[in-house]
Amino acid sequence: MDSKKQNNLELDTPIQFVKGVGPARAKASAELGIHTLYDMLEYFPRDYNFMPSPVKIDQLKPNRVATVIGLVEQTDFNRFGRPPIFKAAIADDTGICQLIWFHGAYVQKMLEPGKTIMVSGKPAVYKNRLQFTNPKFIVIESPADDPDPDVLAGAVYPASAKLSSRQIKNIIHKNIDKFPDLIKEYYDRDFLKKNELIDRAKAFKWIHDPKDDRQLAQAKRRLKHDELFLMQLGIALRRYKHRHFSPATPFKCTDAVDSRIRKRFPFLLTEDQNNVINQIVEDLAKPVPANRLLQGDVGSGKTVVALYAALLAVANKTQAAIMAPTEILANQHFISIERYLKNSKVKRTLITGGITGKKRTELLKQISSGQIDIVVGTIALVQEDIEFKNLGLVVIDEQHKFGVHQRAKLRKDHCPHCLVMTATPIPRTLTMTAFGDLDVSTIKNPPPGRGKVVTRWVQPHDRDAAYDFIRQRLKAKKQAYFVYPRIDAESDEKQTDLKAAIQEHKVLSRKIFPEFRVALLHGQMNSEKKNETMRQFRSKKIDILVSTIVIEVGLDVPNATIMVIENANNFGLAQLHQLRGRIGRGQSNSYCLLFADTENEAAISRLEIMTRSNDGFEISEHDLKLRGPGELFSARQHGLPDLKLANIIDDFELLNLARINAFELVKNDPTLSKPQHKNIRSTLIKKFGDKIGLADIA
Ligand code: ADP
Ligand code: MG
């Protein structure tokens, strides 16, 4: 070992030069991802045993956890017992006690009379004697060995064949008294007290070597706070940079402009819409680019809000782009915008892949010369080939296809205000992390006068009754969607029993509903045919639209009040909720019938949540819990450090606290250059590198 290095131990000292580690263990450590002393400190235990130091057998008390060391005097294995039982008696110089293991075949292989063992557990009185049931134990090879009472106690590390948990523990313990010198505090006393946090060096000591649950809990709280705090600091700094280094056109919203815009809508805006508009107007009035997420369930009235913002941009002599993920949706946005803008002087255009040749060249010219005020199109299209004269606002309707990268790409070319709309309610946990650099506005309540949406899980034996019910509604001139999990059973190579739209379309139109007009819509049809089918459905020339999840995105037909989802157990919660958003858009009640034959517990709990709740936020919180945070939120994907201890669902309160603390810090010291923030700053640069631009700020 290099003693000079040992003396100036630093957090980034290579693990090989740390006390207790030589070349061989360094190699084994590297395989576990441990390269420096700091990696070792952050190599957290996966579990703990809280075991007291050994006592003599005559000191044992019933129902108190204790450890004893004794000589195995006698064993007995009843392999035919139910369950098989292994018994042993051990003795020390003060007495004898009994041990019993149910399913004890594994113990039989390890114990025999004459061996010395250390046993830990909670003895209880059985037939007037003290007996341990299923105790933890280790065999002490030779009674002369000085048994290490820690063997059954303390931290348990994720280990490998080359480096055991015990060896890791030893390395940590050999260095533990240097923690206070090595680990620098981030905060002052007042901050720690106010937030009920212990100091950082102590937290590292206690997480590796807690005396009890209380110390462990305090250590975890502190270290989780720091992880979340550093993440939020990254977000806060990114936001600060965005706001202070990229100028945008501030929009004025006079009363005259406001009332001119409102006259465009044939209804009064709801309270939620007004609140959200106020927030947006406030954003747009600033000379820095707005970056706001507008969320609200399908049909909650977001398009109106987006149009308000677009018209405000136009009133301020800039252009607005409204972008949708698909051509169908772009089309639909354009239709509804046209409805509101009839006879308006505002110049607007729809630009899709179908517009080609001279017409396209002409349109692009008008956009780049500023003759056109509002451009509606697909996200891909607008990003690819359109040059604006003075783009002031971009509205991105992402529905559920939330693409962080697409937003980033657009922002590089221009510096417009940005409003992102989503119909997937994003749980608070995610608006604070994955979408943490966006401001969030929410429309909770839909416009008045909507019918209820009733959701039922239909089991196989109720299928005919459900068909009868649907028939009645269709006779009353309502329309229905039938949604299937796949398109074509014949071309599909996967062997499944899942129903397919093409085949079921035949069954429905010929056998079940021959008296009604049944049409097919799916993603493999060309877009002309698709648009034609949608038009016919909208104008009630079609009664039943058979489809796949393509209709998930954006169809708006208020007269369609029935939705059947086949093999509903095969859809995710967010998907089911999105699909259901197609109905309930008119005044009459709507019905969502989930056809499902399943005993799968996860599927059943999804179906139950759907029948119980229409609240998108409640559903997305459930979704997050059912799927776990990992699937929806990967810190790395968002340029944030990974979380080792904290979890954004279970530690939501700490996340909240850390966020407040981080944003407060950036507000007071946006470059983290005050001397008291030195330690945070250097940690941050180490963790993020130049990803958050702290280096540029410096
Ligand atoms: P979203 O974009 O959130 O799905 P839309 O803006 O398309 O919702 O609105 C859904 C329907 O509600 C549209 O038909 C629209 O005309 C209507 N609507 C929107 N706002 C109001 C309102 N304040 N009062 C009455 N109807 C409204
Ligand atoms: Mg919409």
Descriptive overview:
With 698 residues, the chain is an alpha/beta fold. The chain has five domains: 1-50 and 164-180, no CATH class; 55-152, OB fold (Dihydrolipoamide Acetyltransferase, E2P); 183-250 and 633-698, no CATH class; 255-285 and 301-422, Rossmann fold (3-Layer(aba) Sandwich), CATH 3.40.50; 453-625, Rossmann fold (3-Layer(aba) Sandwich). α8 packs across α9 (213-245). The chain is globular, with a radius of gyration of 33 Å. It starts with a helix and ends with a helix. Magnesium ion (MG) binds at residues 302-303. The site of magnesium ion has 2 residues, from α12.
SSE map:
Blueprint: H1 3-7, H2 23-31, H3 37-41, E1 47-49, E2 54-55, E3 66-78, E4 85-92, E5 95-102, H4 105-108, E6 116-121, E7 124-126, E8 129-133, E9 136-140, E10 154-156, H5 165-175, H6 179-182, H7 189-194, H8 200-208, H9 213-245, H10 255-262, H11 271-284, E11 291-296, H12 302-315, E12 319-324, H13 327-340, E13 348-351, H14 357-368, E14 374-378, H15 379-385, E15 391-397, H16 404-413, E16 417-422, H17 428-431, E17 439-443, E18 453-458, H18 463-475, E19 479-483, H19 501-512, E20 518-521, H20 527-538, E21 544-547, E22 560-565, H21 573-580, E23 590-595, H22 601-612, H23 616-627, H24 629-632, H25 652-668, H26 678-688, H27 694-697
Parallel strand pairs: 2-3, 5-8, 11-16, 11-17, 12-14, 12-15, 13-14, 15-16, 18-23, 19-21, 19-22, 20-21, 22-23
Antiparallel strand pairs: 1-10, 3-4, 3-6, 4-5, 6-9, 7-8
Helix pairs in contact: 8-9, 9-25, 10-12, 11-12, 22-23
The structure holds adenosine-5'-diphosphate (ADP) and magnesium ion.
